Task: inverse folding
């Protein structure tokens, strides 16, 4: 009897916390997005600057995914398949973007390509712009999510061991052939999981983008930056309407993540 | 398989081909994306004298920002430890309707863009927001105060703590608690003497991850903080303000402080973790 009371109280506290801290923020986005009606909602999300911002966010997320998936696979392969000195150091260096404020990530690219940067004379001579332009936005998105794929793959590949790969190598198989035929099928769910995490983070990246984008409407504004701009102009409904697109994508990502996690557990079990 | 292992151990050489290529690509990409840009911050800092940097780092506005950042991050992470333990416990030990949805919702702060979370929390806690209106009537202000920053950091940090603790409670057999209960221990005593020591390393990890993330957090904090000097300016916001005014000395100096600080947190965490392991072995 006493146990049941404790159980009920604990569950109630947990549900109340989740409701206040997580569900209400989610609900308020959808509520405010639609509070001036469906017509306002659609005009806010189809407005040219919002569409341009969505396109830039999709472009930068897409490039980030390709680059970081390639890196993540190479990094995880290097760290789990070979013995070499300094492996701990390499792992720690890859994890740096995890522990650094995103504003500093933006600052780092300003320090390379900005007015004070050492690469500035080179880019000026070539007449290309990196910071306060689209390439800067893409580079910071890559930086911020750089360790995500390798972080998922490394523990998984370590747990799986190298015996099959080593056997194949002793029988004369080439490195890439081993990767494609043995390693890739074993790690596909972990890879997908890392890709999902990267998508979520790259899409919502704000701090670093705020530093390097220069916020040119319709050109270098990403969706999160566009939301901030609308908020600062007191266009609350429009800000929330645009936010709701990102929220819907995040909810889809959450569901996908659960499906993939479930599949991973099934294959392990 | 032992045959293969013997061969590897004898030769101490990598059996799988492709080491040079994959190592080369890894190091090149890592340098281009992370190491060279971060190193460049140091190069920029090299243009200034130590006295100039020191003056920036110890300016009264910067000092106030460290205080705001550290205190709000600490309080938020402590709150998250308490609710994180509770949530991890009910999610693994109890079965109730909606449990799976609750479990999925914990991840929301990971998936939701920080700017959207920040915006939602600001509107929720502002004077005429859903929660803010009730609190204002009680004389409590949340938006544009340090409490608002703390709220945003609680939101950002909760999944780190829950996800660190959950696997440990799953592994922990209820048999130990039952044994303690048969021996006559009370519920609270069982929790503090049997359950809590088992999950302490995971709690520390969760706290550390949430704390480290909070110190550098920008997107979710910037809206609700309101950028009031000495009161609600967090350190990442100070860097942003310096950059907006093209004050590269200020931006890079304070960035260096933050980088050093996040390494100290990670280092301290590892030391604490080692101590707890040692205590557990001696106990």
Result:
């Amino acid at each position: 009897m006493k146990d049941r009371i404790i159980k009920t109280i604990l569950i109630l506290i947990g549900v109340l916390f989740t409701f206040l801290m997580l569900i209400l923020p989610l609900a308020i986005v959808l509520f405010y997005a639609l509070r001036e009606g469906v017509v306002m909602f659609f005009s806010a999300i189809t407005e040219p600057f919002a569409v341009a911002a969505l396109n830039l966010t999709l472009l930068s997320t897409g490039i980030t995914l390709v680059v970081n998936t390639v890196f993540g696979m190479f990094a995880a392969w290097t760290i789990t398949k070979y013995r070499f000195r300094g492996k701990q150091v390499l792992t720690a260096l890859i994890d740096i973007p995890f522990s650094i404020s995103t504003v500093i990530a933006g600052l780092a690219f300003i320090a390379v390509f900005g007015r004070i940067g050492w690469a500035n004379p080179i880019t000026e001579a070539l007449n290309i712009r990196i910071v306060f332009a689209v390439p800067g936005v893409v580079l910071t998105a890559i930086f911020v999510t750089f360790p995500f794929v390798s972080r998922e793959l490394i523990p998984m590949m370590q747990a799986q061991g190298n015996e099959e790969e080593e056997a194949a190598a002793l029988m004369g198989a080439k490195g890439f052939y081993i990767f494609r035929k043995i390693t890739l099928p074993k790690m596909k769910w972990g890879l997908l999981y890392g890709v999902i995490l990267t998508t979520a983070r790259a899409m919502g990246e704000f701090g670093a983008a705020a530093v390097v984008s220069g916020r040119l409407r319709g050109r270098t504004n990403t969706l999160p930056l566009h939301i901030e701009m609308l908020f600062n102009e007191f266009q609350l409904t429009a800000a929330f309407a645009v936010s709701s697109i990102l929220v819907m994508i995040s909810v889809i990502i959450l569901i996908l993540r659960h499906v993939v996690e479930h599949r991973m557990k099934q294959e392990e079990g | 398989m032992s045959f293969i292992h013997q061969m590897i151990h004898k030769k101490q050489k990598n059996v799988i081909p492709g080491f040079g290529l994959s190592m080369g690509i890894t190091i090149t990409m890592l340098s281009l994306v992370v190491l060279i840009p971060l190193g460049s911050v140091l190069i920029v800092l090299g243009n200034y004298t130590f006295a100039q940097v020191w003056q920036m780092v110890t300016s009264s506005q910067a000092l106030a920002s460290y205080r705001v950042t550290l205190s709000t991050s600490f309080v938020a992470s402590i709150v998250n430890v308490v609710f994180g333990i509770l949530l991890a416990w009910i999610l693994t030990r109890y079965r109730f309707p909606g449990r799976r949805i609750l479990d999925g919702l914990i991840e929301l702060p990971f998936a939701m863009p920080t700017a959207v979370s920040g915006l939602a929390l600001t509107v929720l806690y502002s004077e005429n927001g859903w929660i803010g209106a009730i609190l204002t009537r009680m004389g409590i202000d949340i938006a544009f105060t340090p409490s608002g920053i703390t709220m945003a950091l609680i939101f950002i940090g909760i999944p780190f703590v829950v996800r660190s603790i959950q696997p440990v409670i799953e592994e922990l057999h209820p048999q130990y608690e039952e044994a303690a209960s048969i021996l006559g221990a009370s519920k609270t005593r069982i929790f503090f003497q049997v359950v809590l020591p088992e999950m302490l390393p995971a709690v520390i990890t969760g706290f550390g991850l949430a704390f480290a993330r909070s110190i550098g957090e920008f997107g979710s904090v910037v809206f609700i903080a309101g950028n009031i000097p000495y009161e609600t300016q967090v350190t990442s916001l100070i860097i942003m303000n310096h950059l907006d005014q093209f004050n590269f000395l200020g931006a890079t100096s304070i960035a260096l402080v933050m980088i050093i600080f996040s390494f100290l947190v990670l280092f301290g965490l590892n030391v604490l973790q080692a101590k707890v392991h040692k205590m557990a072995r001696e106990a």
